[in-house]
Amino acid sequence: MTRFRLNLITICLAFVVITLGAFVRLSDAGLGCPDWPGCYGHLDVPTAEADVAAANERFSHRPVEAPKAWKEMIHRYAAGTLGLLILAMALLTLKRSSSAHQQKALPWVLLVLVIFQALLGMWTVTLLLKPLIVTAHLLGGMATFALLGWCLFREGALFEGYRTAMRRGLRITAGTALALLVGQIFLGAWTSTNYAAMACPDFPTCQTYWWPPTDWSTAFTLWHGLGINYEYGILDSVPRATIHWAHRLGAVAITIAMLGLAALLWRQGRADHRWRGMALTLIAAVVLQVSIGVSVVVFHLPLPVAVAHNGGAALLLLTLMAINHAVWKARDHV
């Protein structure tokens, strides 16, 4: 198997892991297995009557709920497989290659990241869905996906033929848009992990207000201490609405930034039409993500739509990674 094909398979699995993680979180199955890495002391979900009885006795505070437990374990199996593929990518760097595009350091960075992700997955369970840990786990998954994309673009020698004078500010705008998107992904994760997705059940207003009552200090207190069960959230309605409102404001800001970047890419396309393809792809990704986000509220958090919102964020992130790779890889025409 070529490095490029292995990278492609790995990034596809990373996308599956992200969506599975969202499905587990949004279906309230994050504590479907109260221990780690197994489930009630098993490598799979206990189903035999004697095993279930023993599990219920050992974990009396959380009896076996097989549907939730299977969701959690399937996510863990997929994440474990992803880790093995990334290990294979790292080991392949030890093999000599004549390719000038072979990645040396990045697969090892990814391996360290996925190991840290495993620790965050463990802490997610042992610290009872602490929002800071769950948010960090989601961000780590997105970072893994983004770096796999960067590795894929470099390994495939994409954008090698782009030779054009770069418009002033395009590279800075692309980098700024990426930074803003990372911030918006954090806000989305913080909204989800604090169970604030329906804190504003109306749209475009929030609880009938154009600017709802807010409590920014409580809403963005990152650490509430240990020993607290955060399942279903611990915040009151005002802090939750504040978090949700912040995510909406972030969506407005990121949409403006993305459209500005798309406009610059379109103008760049006067020299090479391929830049206009990137602009159209970016616009499509933004429109899709905004539409899904609005649908989450309007249709009151249907699970498939909410999961798709996480997947849309990942695809938008990958699109921006591709654009940033292109604008920095393209050679200025002299």
UniProtKB/TrEMBL annotation:
Keyword flag Iron: yes
Annotated protein name in UniProt: Heme A synthase CtaA protein
Top-level taxon in the UniProt lineage: Bacteria
Key words of the record: Cell membrane, Disulfide bond, Heme biosynthesis, Iron, Membrane, Metal-binding, Oxidoreductase, Transmembrane, Transmembrane helix
Name of the gene: ctaA
Residues annotated as transmembrane: 74-94, 106-126, 132-153, 174-193, 245-266, 278-301, 307-328
This protein's GO CC annotations: membrane
InterPro entries (UniProt xref): COX15/CtaA_fam, COX15/CtaA_HemeA_synthase
Keyword Membrane applies: yes
Location of the protein in the cell: Membrane
Its membrane topology: Multi-pass membrane protein
Associated pathway: Porphyrin-containing compound metabolism
Any GO BP: heme A biosynthetic process
Gene Ontology MF terms in the entry: metal ion binding; oxidoreductase activity
Principal location class: membrane
Organism: Salinisphaera shabanensis E1L3A
